[in-house]
Amino acid sequence: MKPAMETAAEENTEQSQERKGCFECCIKCLGGVPYASLVATILCFSGVALFCGCGHVALAGTVAILEQHFSTNTNDHALLSEVIQLMQYVIYGIASFFFLYGIILLAEGFYTTSAVKELHGEFKTTACGRCISGMFVFLTYVLGVAWLGVFGFSAVPVFMFYNIWSTCEVIKSPQTNGTSGVEQICVDVRQYGIIPWNAFPGKICGSALENICNTNEFYMSYHLFIVACAGAGATVIALLIYMMATTYNYAVLKFKSREDCCTKF
């Protein structure tokens, strides 16, 4: 009986050690995950997807509104149509580039964590590794500044559609807003510079303007531009997080070049 009891005790001890070893291994792996880069990647993918998807559809809706109501002559908005088509192609390129760039930055974050070091053994940083990290820092800063411009540019159509929508609200309730002569309340999109001054009609007033605001094209384009602007803002925040992560990684690689690279970003 005693040997059997001792064997059972030894088996229980081995099982508890195995469970403890698995638990410690999981803790090390979770401790080495680059959470900042992971959050930034998810936020970047979401923001770029919203900006590209909603922006593409909203631009198509804007062209339809202009062609049907503000510029009946195709030659008047031919240049605008070409620019919008070019922007739609640029959107495809932006989506593809940031999909790859986000994956690369996330991989770089994993590469410079203690979890990867535990998997691949001890290693020292090299000049090539520090150079690559420095390149990511520079490129991320440039992209962050560029996306600040994109965020500001994406707010322009939101401002334009908001002005049209607020004008329609005045037309719907003129007495509440203290206005008279509804047919004299107009919106002239030529003042925004998107169509030339000789475009016809260019200006819509009164009930005709209210009918435009009630169309599905206007409603969808307005809200899609808002979502696209929010997506651009989310991408800016993601790039700011990437800036902090890549800068931290580069600092660790630079100032601990003779030690093992062990970062948490």
What can you tell me about this protein's structure?
There is one protein chain. The chain has 265 residues and is mainly alpha-helical. The chain contains seven helices and two strands; from the N terminus they run αααααββαα. The chain has helices at 2-31, 35-70, 78-111, 114-120, 127-172, 206-213, 216-255; strands at 186-188, 203-205. It has a two-stranded antiparallel ribbon with strand order 1-2. α2 (35-70) runs antiparallel to α7, α5 packs across α6 and α5 (127-172) packs antiparallel against α7. The two termini are 55 Å apart. Mean pLDDT is 80; it is low at 115-120 and 259-265.
Summarize the structure.
The chain is an all-alpha fold and 265 residues long. The protein has seven helices and two strands.
What does the overall shape look like? Answer: elongated
Find the structural class using helix and strand composition: mainly alpha
Rounded mean pLDDT is 80
For the largest sheet, list the strands in their spatial order: 1-2
Ends distance: 55 Å
Largest sheet: 2 strands, antiparallel
Proportion of strand residues: under 5%
Q: List SSEs in N-to-C order.
A: HHHHHEEHH
Number of helices: 7
**Low-pLDDT stretches:** 115-120, 259-265
What is the share of helical residues? Answer: over 70%
Q: How many β strands by DSSP?
A: 2
CA-atom Rg in angstroms: 29 Å
